[in-house]
TrEMBL record, chain A:
Keyword Signal in record: yes
Protein known as: Osmoprotectant transport system substrate-binding protein
InterPro entries: ABC_Gly_betaine_transp_sub-bd
Signal peptide (from-to): 1-20
TrEMBL record, chain B:
Superkingdom per UniProt: Bacteria
GO biological process, alphabetically ordered: glycine betaine transport; transmembrane transport
InterPro entries linked to this entry: ABC_transp_perm/SBD, MetI-like, MetI-like_sf
Protein name: Osmoprotectant transport system permease protein
From TrEMBL, chain C:
Primary location: membrane
Native organism: Actinophytocola algeriensis
Keywords: Membrane, Transmembrane, Transmembrane helix, Transport
Transmembrane domains' residue ranges: 25-47, 54-79, 157-174, 186-206
The ABC transmembrane type-1 domain, residue ranges: 21-204
Keyword hit for Transport: yes
Official protein name in the record: Osmoprotectant transport system permease protein
Gene3D superfamilies for the chain: MetI-like
Localisation per UniProt entry: Cell membrane; Membrane
Amino acid sequence: MKRVIAGVATALAATLAVSACGGSEDPLAEDQPTGGSGDTITVGSANFPESQLLAEIYAQALEAKGVTVERQHDLGSREKYMDGLKDGSIDLIPEYTGVLLQFFDKSAPQVEAEEVYAALPAALPENLTVLDKAAAEDKDAIVVTRETADKWDLKSIEDLVPHCGEVVFGGPPEIQERADGIPGIKETYNCTFKSFSSLEPGAITTKALLDGTVQAADIFTTDAAIEANDLVVLEDPKNNFAAQNVVPLINKDKASDTVKETLNAVSAKLDTETLLDLNARLNAPDKPEYADVAKEWLGEVGL
Amino acid sequence: MNSTLNWLFDPAHWSGPTGIPARILEHLGYTALTVLIAAAIAVPLGAIIGHTGRGTFLVAGLSNGLRALPELGLLTLLVLLTYVGLLPVVVALVILALPPILAGTYAGIRNVDASVVDAARGMGMRGSTVLWKVELPNALPLILGGIRSATLQVIATATIAAYVALGGLGRFVIDGNNAGAGSPNGYPQMAAGAIVIAVLALVVEGVLEIVQRVAVSPGLRNVATRKRTARIWRKPTPDLVGRST
Amino acid sequence: MNVDWPWPWLPRNVDKIVEATGEHLYLALLPVLAGLVISVPLGWAASRWPAVRLVLVPLAGVLYTIPSLALITLVPLLLGTKIIDPLNVQVPLAIYTIALLVRSVTDALLAVPGEVTAAATAIGFRPAKRFLAVELPLAVPVIVAGLRVAAVSAMSLTAVGALIGIGGLGGLITEGFRRNNAVEMVVAIALILVIALIIDALLLLAGKVITPWTRVRQGAAK
């Protein structure tokens, strides 16, 4: 029976392979456009909303300066799109300094924003570089409701320490093992939570926090839910979570002066407040398109 | 394969509140709660429909419509619309468990030999007494069959509860998936969890089959097997019982 | 937290919805077809040799009992596929279809009256032709009934694949769940439900069309 199934499996796989060629599902597999591509920049983005919005902002800002742009949205995880950057099938993608550094140097000790940024160029592959980092940060943080913050008078994770034993902590399953996740919080702050609840990132995490199913949760600092639900981000004075500034990662060959100036001008305008606001617009009840939000913001800041 | 077996037999994974035994208990807990609630609703309802012959469309309509309803969607939507917790999950599971029990009870009552019912009435029994003393005991094999097939559906579907922050054996699959393919707690954890889920389903199926045999008196067993129509209901797996998870 | 119902999302994302629906149908229906093709010879063998029956029918019961999330998860271990691979969903669906149909086909073939096969043999039908021209057509109503259950189940089972990253309409359900977009979820649920009921109706109709004699017999009985 198993052999029969394996046979069917092979047949199905063959069908799949054929149909995959017809679709445009794997943009990384496509050949680069030939000839005169010196002025064309292919902008990629990862599989989450903020990345797609930032990529759209980069793309539209460049187009405004006369650069020809191609878009390759939703390329999946870092492991997947990084191959595309190395082989030149995409040229530019919005990244975050801390995770980018750790991706290429797993044991990198730097946590502070400037240190992380300074360590990046040496860690990156030959053909890639980063431009100016933005002030905007999006990193993991411990978040509580306004009510909890008032009750326990919380401003930073240190204030939470006496209450850790009463707290059910919620977050994505992987933070149970990540160095800056539960083990990091325990080591850095000597905080051991009562228990842990596995939550999908996104709406359900916010919901669990508001329901009281969990008392504190791991949420990205730029999550629109923070502003929308008046949540409180606890400060991290001991830098358990490494700095994560938004930064354009680009192919050196494509980083002409115009491109550099344009993207650095964008980064100069991007602070954490702005990123929060942009995510809030993206998450507005009518779920607007990335391109519209990007266009609106670029108009507002005169780019 | 080896890393999966190592994960499965690592003593560290067999103790504590997140160990395999604790998750099995959680899983069985969700299942028992759901099936009890569903039976409390569907057995009386099915008995009344079968006894009076009114509302037959409900039985057929529910089985057909609910089989096509994606349980993942129902579960996540209910949680989003209410709150993160046990109640919305149990409601979604009960909705799934109703049709097989309803259909089993209805068919059981309908399949009772007309001459038996006539004899009971001839002896002066009233409608409710006929239902209690004659129809329901005679329908027991098919009612239990319905409960058995509902239980298996719920065990399968309770694995999804982990996606909406509950426990149970689905936890291992979901957590392993999020940990990333390369991690030692990635695929090995997923596969080990899947093996436990499969074994649990098979064991429960075996136990229920035995319960079904023991609970039914030998006289009734003969009646049920003589009727070919009844056979389909008495052994609901895998004949024509659909599954949505 | 308010649940968002962004109805304008729907007209803006028609392309995305159509693409997800196509993927869903491909993930769900191809295995049902493959399962049908495989289970006819298996059912034939089981109806002919009691030894085969003794192995196949309980095996089908066991396989059908295994929850889908478990089976989906175990495919990479058993067949060496990648962690994210459409086959991880399609192989379990094919297995469920086979488990359902093998038993139906076996029962249906065993129920063909001996005098019918004897008559067919008497007028010169060789075994292979007799199977294709007499026994199999007589089993069609039972096979169609099983196929309907398998196809409808497959439509809703496919959504489970979204939990391990194999999309279809289930991907819209999980995405809507993450982004607090109830419209996206409801659209995906409704499409799965409606398409499943349409497929069910089409199979019922097809079954009647290819077995005209069942209607004649009903007519004659009146």
